[in-house]
Predict the structure.
Amino acid sequence: MEIRVSPTRMQLLQLKKSHAMAVRGHKLLKDKLDELMKQFLELVKRDRELREEVDEKLSEAFRGFLIARGAMSSSAVDAALMYPKEQISLKASRRHIMNIEVPEFEWSFEGQEDRTNIYPYGFAYTSPELDTAIRLLSEAMPSLVELAEVEKSVELLAGEIEKTRRRVNALEHVVIPQQEASIKYITMKLDEAERANITRLMKVKEIVGERSV
Amino acid sequence: MRMHKIAVIGDEDSILGFRALGVSVFPAKNGKEAEEALRAAARRDYAVIYITETHASEIIDVITEYSQAPLPVVLTIPDTRGGQGAAMEKIRRTVEKALGADILFGREGNA
């Protein structure tokens, strides 16, 4: 590695200062990375649980719909679902995990207090599969919203972890070794100059001594 | 804090049921329509946008565009054909990106 510093005492002092700073920064970033990792793994675990749950529930609900559409004419299904009784209200706010902004949702079904009567149609002309499917969907809704929150957090955290890891690596494998090499180089140069100076002084003393004899 | 809405984009058969819950439904026949619906929804007050897996796989680039900002959240959901594991695959990829190794899923066998 080429070292491009002038071997002076000033440079040495400056380098030592920035080296100390780099080492401290490295330690801090490493701590941050550890904590991010911990949070990330927890979120990923939750993400996977929710994902499995949601996938299962939705698949079931969709199957129900398919059957319902088979049993009823599609215009009848359309008509049945035309005017929803329910209205979802969603409030999005931000939360901070390790200084990263992640969304947080607060939500509720509006309109219908009685959770057993969520169907926007009378039962006379619709197939029971439709009821089941809609019930399953509305059951899946809380998980779906939480999943949105968690999955987004996972994504954002992953980006941050990648960035932090790159910084830690750059400090650990490039910046700090370079500084150490430079410090060593300057120290050697200065020592060398010191030795040269001493020998020169000794030589001068010798010459002066010879003359005075 | 503003009020936000939830949108679902996908083939009509799969997503019709969401209408009963008061979720906005945008039927799309193909990837292009899904992309248009997604962009339109993202510009408006939709905080969460669900896209069925079949459509999502066609417009994965567009979805990735929205992955860095906190809002909106774009999520894939299975459709009538059932989940094809794309969502799990996405989690796996994210983990790999963050940790540099697939420790989570590789370890599952003896966990």
